């Protein structure tokens, strides 16, 4: 995965949220607070299911 944006589904509440692929901070679900992405120094570790890649318009 490159450093694009991804729509990720929360494994707990099924909320769909857009996450940056190279997130430098932990990203939590806006609804329930479950961690969706963890920084790894490069590509973020996406913990939810990636629904789609968000393309530039």
List the helices and strands and how they pair.
Blueprint: E1 5-9, E2 16-20, E3 27-28, E4 35-38, E5 45-46, E6 49-54
Antiparallel strand pairs: 1-2, 1-6, 3-4, 4-5
Account of the 3D structure:
Belongs to the eukaryotic ribosomal protein eS27 family. This protein is 0% helix and 42% strand. It has 57 residues and is an all-beta fold. It has a single domain (5-54), classed as Single Sheet (N-terminal domain of TfIIb), CATH 2.20.25.100. A hairpin with a 6-residue loop joins strand 1 and strand 2 (16-20).
Helix amount: under 10%
Name given to the CATH homologous superfamily: Ribosomal protein S27
**How big is the Rg?**
10 Å
Oligomer: single chain
Q: For the terminal residues, how far apart are their CA atoms?
A: 19 Å
CATH fold annotation: N-terminal domain of TfIIb
- Tally of DSSP β-strands: 6
* Strand adjacency order, main sheet: 2-1-6
The CATH class label is Mainly Beta
Catalogue the unreliable spans. none
Tally of individual domains: 1
Q: In CATH terms, what is the architecture?
A: Single Sheet
Beta-strand share of residues: 35-45%
């Amino acid at each position: 995965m490159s450093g694009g944006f991804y729509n990720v589904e929360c494994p707990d509440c099924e909320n769909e949220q857009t996450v940056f692929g190279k997130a430098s901070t932990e990203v939590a679900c806006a609804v329930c607070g479950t961690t969706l992405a963890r920084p790894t120094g490069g590509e973020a570790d996406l913990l939810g299911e990636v629904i789609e890649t968000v393309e530039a318009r």
